[in-house]
Amino acid sequence: MTERMDPVSLRRRIGARLRQARADAGRTTSEAAAELGCSRGKISQMEAGMYRLQHRDVRDLLRFYGVAQSSAEPLVEWAKRSSEPSWWAPYAEVVEDWFAFFLGSEGEAVREFNYEQLVVPGLLQTAEYAAALTAASRSVAEEDRGKVAELRLERQRRLTDEDPLVLHAVIEESALRRPIGGLAVLRNQLRHLVEMADLSHVEIQVMPTGVGAHSGLDGKFVLLEFQDFGPGVFLEGHPVIGARFEVEDPTLTETYTSIAKALREEALDQQRSIELMESVIAELG
């Protein structure tokens, strides 16, 4: 178990495991509720990860479902930790529920693949770039903009941890030419990207506009890989399904793992990507 586990993420993952265990045991929510002496609504909320978990409830349900003790013990331990505060708690007022699950999961991840079409990925943004981007957003209330920008920068601590997140980003060339915050801010942002690419655990590739149609045109996404769980996919602004973060969904994760592999092959390699970024910096003067 990693030391970065997040309570929101834990509740969602425990809930998914409880739901699967109940299905495998052929039990109904009514039977589970009768076993705990609670309402069916509580069982449904537990399985959805929306309920503050009691480790005894998790233990009793898993026993009722016939789950082996060796498999149940980790879930019970996770349940004990699911009431601890999240690292993003100071920013809770500007974090929606679906994004909270992603933030917690990103804190636990060991590897992240991020494909961005319109802007520089949040983990690689400078403070000035993040502030300009947030100020331009119509979906962020003016009084919340400072908090949102701070949260974006706080996420970046994962790249400087003692055991840092391994990041692989593919960014559209057009995003590197969009003067968010003005030319000076953009120039500093591109210099920052070049510096970050020099880190052994960060790889940055640019998708040149001249490539034309390619595997990522359906939209930006983040693929997270974990030490203790299966991978998860974060989709924001998808043309069909909108914003969501999904774990425990093999079909979706396999699809986006395949897309990520294709994007790595279609984009410029890191050395040529750095050369392109340096050429854009030179053009900016």
Describe the structure.
- The chain has 285 residues and is an alpha/beta fold.
- The protein is 50% helix and 13% strand.
- The protein is built from twelve helices and six strands.
- It has helices spanning 7-25, 29-36, 40-47, 55-64, 69-81, 97-108, 127-136, 145-155, 173-177, 183-196, 250-266, 270-284, and strands at residues 111-116, 166-172, 202-207, 221-225, 232-238, 242-247.
- It has a six-stranded mixed β-sheet, with helices on both faces.
- Strand 4 (221-225) and strand 5 form a beta hairpin.
- Helix 1 runs antiparallel to helix 5 (69-81) and helix 7 crosses helix 8.
- The mean pLDDT is 89.
Give a brief rundown of this model.
By secondary structure, the chain is an alpha/beta fold. It has helices at residues 7-25, 29-36, 40-47, 55-64, 69-81, 97-108, 127-136, 145-155, 173-177, 183-196, 250-266, 270-284, and strands at 111-116, 166-172, 202-207, 221-225, 232-238, 242-247.
Class inferred from helices and paired strands? alpha/beta
Oligomer: single chain
Number of helices: 12
Q: Note the overall shape.
A: elongated
Task: Tally the beta strands.
Answer: 6
The residue fraction in helices comes out at: 40-55%
Biggest beta-sheet profile: 6 strands, mixed
Uncertain ranges: none
How much of the sequence is in beta strands?
5-15%
Radius of gyration: 21 Å
Widest sheet: strand ordering: 3-2-1-4-5-6
Termini Cα gap: 49 Å
**Sequence of secondary-structure elements:** HHHHHHEHHEHHEEEEHH
The mean pLDDT is: 89
